[in-house]
Amino acid sequence: MHALLFLVVSLVAFYLSYRFYANYLARKIWQVKPDQVTPATVRDDGFEFVPSRPELVAGHHFTSIAGAGPILGPIVAAIWGWVPALLWVIFGTIFIGAVHDFGALMTSLRHQGRGLADYLNDLLGRRATQLMYGVVFFLLVLVCAVFIHVIATLAHAYPAAVYSIWVEIPLALIIGWGLRKGWKVNPIISGLIAVAVMYAMVPVGLAYPLQLPYATWVWVLLAYIVVATRLPVWSLVQPRDFINGIQLIIALVVISAGIAVLALAGGGQLVAPAIRLAPPGAPPIWPFVMITIACGAVSGFHSLVAGGTTSKQLRSEGDAKFVGFGSMLAEGYLAVIALLTAVVGLGVAGYEQFYAAWGAARWPVVWAEGGAAFLVPLGFPVALAAALFAVVAKSFAMTTLDSAMRFTRIVTAEFASTFRLPAWFQDRSVSLIPGLAAVMFLALPRAGRLPLGMDLWPLFGASNQILAALALLAAAVFLMSLRRPILAYVIPFVIMVVTSMTAMAYSVITTYIPRGNWTLAVIGIIVFLCSLGVIGIAFRVWRKGAPASPNIAD
User: Fold this and answer.
1) Comparing C-alpha atoms, which of 125, 132, 119, 122 is closest to residue 540?
2) 173-177 contacts at long range (C-beta below 8 A, 24 or more positions apart)
3) Angle between helices 237-264 and 327-340 (to 10 degrees)
4) Rounded CA separation 30/286 (Å)
5) What does pTM read for this prediction?
6) Between these two residues, 424 and 154, which has the higher pLDDT value?
7) How far apart are CA 111 and CA 118, in angstroms?
8) By C-alpha distance, which of 501, 493, 495 is closest to 476?
9) Could you tell me if 98 and 331 are in contact, meaning their C-beta atoms sit under 8 angstroms apart?
10) Residue 537: φ, ψ to 5°
11) Which of 100, 109, 264, 342 could form a disulfide with 78 if both were Cys (CB 3.0 to 4.6 A apart)?
12) Binning pLDDT at 50, 70 and 90, where does residue 393 land?
């Protein structure tokens, strides 16, 4: 198989799924009503609930769910060969990931724009909500801590990309304020200009790299997320994510063109084996190829994005298919590109070097150096091409970071509201404190060791997919209460719950306990049991027949 065929097959599959399957879900399952008043309009507060243009919401949602996940996962999973990775990216994206994202967004829209853990109270009751809040809060602070590490590492390793990332912030603020104040600002033209400025800073970074210690970058990023989280969503987060969305579309088009030119020149052949059942040191191909690829096919984190900010910005329910289902397809295509950097871009020697054993594939290097091979045929110097790939990776890691921190604050405020804590717990500054304290505990460097968050990161893959299973379950219970068909959500739920909980149990029993890593073992068991509790409660509700939620707007 050739790299160009990778792209053609995935694009055709994704187009057909959007044309037919997404329409089926929108019309028959969710019965989308474009004229229905959305939570963004009803609860418009100028801060979180902000009815916005669909392209702005799509840009925010797409870049928030993309992050580094669809880059990292497929690159690491290439150790099992290209066939299992490609099949899971394509079919997992279409029948599970996009279904999950669309369902999470619609369920939140029909529950006043509330988040997953919060609206679960209406569907399954107080006990399920308590268990879910614990799982969600743990995952969010872990994501924040690890992405701080990832961005700080990239900034330290690729100083040439630093200026491009930070110049984007004032550009986004200008665009956001201009749109909010009614200036004659065309968001697409403004976004293109911002991307051009970002890329123009790459040669400056190559000539005058900004080199700061890793620990300094960690503190800078901690300060940044505090400021970003306290600003209204329209002022920084939304326009910056829109800029990054344009950047990613441009990058995907240019990379695809480079692969086509490479093919015409006789290159682009696969250098990785089709399948490797037992690579040295790697866990079993099932369930871990699915767990490793994660965001490249399906991710529970996406349900937090859908209910955390996206449902609070949609001004029309008719945009939900484009934003929810469509963004996941775009992320699947990004995952295909990431996979190609490993199985084509590295070359034979590069693949043998990075995939000789489990843990050898340093994904930032594979992404930058493997991806550079696709831009060289277009005339890009290798150093510039690698820097551009680093800019893409850091941009999306930054969007996930500040979105995750915002969700942490929102989840804390929703928890306070659901369980009727004093009103001041819902204050936008007070509700930020618990998450920030946990993130600092997990993210700050330790003498001679990685931050604690990186020690806990092995739990993320299975925990994240367990969350995806629970979000699919919540959507199925909601649809059942509406007397709608549920198989489109029940089948993916069964696949994901079996896969993710098998992976968690396997890791605890065969890795964490034998190695004496009791922290991972205990937290893994807690997540496992909390999830079992939610599933058990859902099963009892299922047997009785789910009552209609009092907060449903259907």
Assistant:
1) 125
2) 173/235, 173/236, 173/239, 175/239, 175/242, 175/243, 176/234, 176/235, 176/236, 176/238, 176/239, 176/240, 177/235
3) 50
4) 32
5) 0.91
6) 424
7) 9
8) 493
9) no
10) -60, -40
11) 342
12) confident
